[in-house]
Specification:
This protein is an alpha+beta fold and about 500 residues long. It has 3 domains: about 1-45 and about 140-205, no CATH class; about 50-135 and about 205-330, no CATH class; about 350-485, Beta Barrel (Thrombin, subunit H). The chain contains 11 helices and 22 strands. The chain has helices at about 1-25, 35-45, 55-65, 65-70, 140-160, 165-185, 190-200, 280-285, 295-305, 315-335, 475-485; strands at about 75-80, 85, 90-95, 105, 110-135, 205-235, 240-255, 265, 275, 295, 310, 350-355, 355-360, 365-375, 375-380, 390-395, 400-410, 415-420, 435-440, 455, 460-465, 470-475. It is globular, with a radius of gyration of 28 Å.
C-alpha cells in the first residue's frame, strides 16, 4: 500500500510540473474530450487488438499466455437459441459485445450418432435438504469494503493536489487534477472501481444457507454418448471476411437411475457428475438432445484444420444462407419419411430440452413447467400453482429450491416466482404470433406437463396451457402481466427483448 501511495505522489508531482510548464509557455491545455486530448491518449495507449487478423486473435486466445490476457474479447453467437454453450476466457456472447470486430458464428448442431451404455450399479451418498435460511453474502461485503477504500484514496488524492493554499498554484493544480482523472479512469483506480461496481451489481445481497443430511443409496448408472457436427464461421464483420469449417462435437452424460424408494427431494453432491433420473425414458430422450458446445474445443478444432482463404460475405448474408440450408435439409428429411400408402398424421411438435426451463413441483410430483424470464424470476401458469406462497422448483439435476410467488393473475393464468438460484433468461419476441416449437425441461417428462414456452428465432411467443394443445397464453397477455407485476406489485424485473 505504501509503494502504491508513493507512485501516486510521484505522478502528482510530474503532472503538476507539466501543468506549470504549460501555463508558463502560454500553450493552451487540452480540453476534456478535445481532438488534441484524444490524439495524446491514442499515442500513450495502444489501440486494443492492434492489426491482428481474426484467425490470429483466435489462435492467441486458444494458445493462451501473457499476451492473451491483454487481447480483446471475441464474440460468440449461435443460430440455435436453445444451444448449450460453454464459454471460456476471452470469449463473450454477442449480446454483451454487439460491436465486436471478430465473431465466432455457430450453426445448429447436427447429431450423427448416439448410444446408451449401462455402467452397472453403484453405492452413493446423496443429500437431502432439511432446512434453508438466508444469510448476508460475504462476497458482497468484501466488494463494498474494497470499493469504499478506493473512493477514500481518490478523495485523499484530490485534497493533496487542489489544496495548496496558493491561488496561482491551485489553478495549475486544477488542470493537473483533470489529467489525473483521465489517467486514473483509463489505467488506474477508476478502471478497478468500474469493474467492482459491475461485479457488485451482479452479486446478490444475501445467499441461501442449507442444512443437509446424507443418505446411502444404490443406483444404476448409464452413460449417454452423443456425437455430432457443427458448422463454424469466423467472421470479420467490418471487412466482410468469413473463414468457414465444420468441426465434430461430442458429449457424454452419466445418469443414475434412482430406486422407487428414494425420497423425491434428494440430490447428488456437487463433486459428482451423475444426473439423477427416475425413469429410463429420460435416457432415450437424452439421445436426441444435441451435445453441449465447448467454445475452447471448437476454436482449437477449427485452428487444427487448414483454413481456406476467406470468402467475401456479409454476416447477414451468411446467416440467411445457413438458415435456408437448414430449412431445406429439414424439408428433405420430412419428405423422405412420408408414406404413400397411409394418410399422413398431424405432426406432433418436437419438445426440445433446455436448461432455462425448470419444473414446478409439489409433494405429489411435477406440476408444470416454468422458465427464466429474468436472472432470478420464473414465469409459469397460475392455475398449476398451489395456494401457498412458497413453491418447490427443480432448477438443476438433483437440486430443488423454493420459489416465492411475487405476482399472480388468475384471469391471465400467469404467475411470477422469485428463486434464489440465478439462471439465464429466455428472450421475449418483439412481435406477436404463436409460432415456433415448445421448449421442455431436462429435469422432467416435459411433453406431459403444461407451461412449456413456445419459442422461435425471435424468442418466446406464447405459453402452452396443456401438452399438445393449441390453447396458449399469447405474447400480448405475457407483456401485460409483466407490466402489471411492476406497477401493482412493485416487482423489480428486467426482461430481454433484444
Amino acid at each position: 500500500m505504501r509503494k502504491a501511495a508513493d507512485r501516486w505522489q510521484v505522478k502528482r508531482i510530474l503532472l503538476l510540473c507539466a501543468g506549470m510548464a504549460t501555463a508558463c509557455s502560454g500553450t493552451t491545455p487540452f480540453a476534456p474530450g478535445s481532438e488534441r486530448e484524444t490524439a495524446a491518449l491514442d499515442r500513450l495507449i495502444p489501440a486494443a487488438g492492434g492489426t491482428l487478423s481474426c484467425p490470429d486473435r483466435l489462435r492467441l486466445l486458444v494458445e493462451g499466455g501473457p499476451e492473451a490476457r491483454d487481447a480483446p474479447a471475441l464474440a460468440v453467437r449461435s443460430l440455435d437459441p436453445a444451444a448449450a454453450i460453454a464459454l471460456s476466457a476471452g470469449f463473450v456472447r454477442r449480446e454483451e459485445l454487439p460491436q465486436a470486430d471478430c465473431l465466432l458464428l455457430l450453426d445448429r448442431v447436427r447429431i450423427t450418432e448416439s448410444e446408451v451404455r449401462p455402467l452397472g450399479s453403484l453405492a452413493v451418498e446423496v443429500e437431502r435438504v432439511v432446512s434453508r435460511r438466508k444469510i448476508a453474502n460475504p462476497e458482497r461485503a468484501a466488494l463494498e469494503r474494497r470499493l469504499a477504500e478506493l473512493r477514500q484514496e481518490r478523495r485523499g488524492d484530490r485534497r493533496d493536489i487542489l489544496r495548496t493554499g496558493d491561488p496561482t498554484v491551485d489553478l495549475v493544480g486544477l488542470a493537473a487534477q483533470t489529467l489525473v482523472d483521465v489517467v486514473d479512469t483509463v489505467a488506474g483506480r477508476g478502471a478497478e472501481m468500474a469493474r467492482l461496481e459491475e461485479e457488485l451489481a451482479r452479486t446478490p445481497p444475501t445467499r441461501e444457507e442449507e442444512t443437509v443430511e446424507r443418505l446411502p443409496l444404490a443406483v444404476e448408472r448409464s452413460a449417454v454418448r452423443v456425437r455430432g457436427k457443427v458448422r463454424v464461421a469466423l467472421v470479420d464483420p467490418r471487412h466482410e471476411l468469413v473463414w468457414q469449417g465444420e468441426v465434430p462435437v461430442e458429449e457424454v452424460r452419466t445418469y443414475a437411475l434412482l430406486p422407487a424408494s428414494a425420497p423425491r427431494d434428494v440430490r447428488f453432491p456437487s463433486t459428482t457428475d451423475l444426473v439423477p433420473v427416475r425413469d429410463r425414458s429420460v435416457l432415450d430422450a437424452a439421445r436426441s438432445q444435441p451435445p453441449a458446445v465447448a467454445i475452447a474445443a471448437i476454436a482449437r478444432a477449427l485452428l487444427d484444420r487448414p483454413l481456406e482463404p476467406p470468402a467475401r460475405l456479409a454476416l447477414a448474408d451468411l446467416e440467411r444462407r445457413w438458415r435456408q440450408e437448414d430449412g431445406s435439409a429439414g424439408e428433405a428429411r420430412a419428405l423422405s419419411s412420408l408414406s404413400s400408402l397411409e394418410p399422413a398424421a398431424p405432426p406432433r411438435p418436437t419438445v426440445r430440452l433446455d436448461p432455462r426451463v425448470v419444473v414446478v413441483r409439489d409433494e405429489d410430483g411435477d406440476r408444470a413447467l416454468a422458465f427464466y424470464i429474468g436472472p432470478e424470476h420464473l414465469l409459469t401458469l397460475a392455475r398449476t400453482l398451489p395456494t401457498t406462497t412458497l413453491v418447490p422448483v427443480g432448477v438443476a439435476p438433483g437440486l430443488v429450491t423454493y420459489g416465492l410467488v411475487e405476482s399472480r393473475d388468475e384471469a391471465r393464468d400467469l404467475a411470477l416466482l422469485w428463486v434464489p438460484r440465478r439462471g439465464e433468461p429466455l428472450r421475449l419476441a418483439d412481435s406477436g404470433g404463436a409460432g415456433g416449437a415448445p421448449l421442455g425441461s431436462p429435469f422432467a417428462a416435459s411433453d406431459e406437463l403444461p407451461g412449456a414456452p413456445v419459442v422461435d428465432a425471435r424468442g418466446v411467443t406464447a405459453i402452452r396451457r396443456a401438452p399438445e394443445s393449441a390453447d396458449m397464453v399469447p405474447l400480448s397477455e405475457i407483456l401485460g402481466f409483466l407490466a402489471q407485476a411492476r406497477e401493482r406489485d412493485g416487482v423489480g424485473l428486467a426482461i430481454d427483448r433484444r
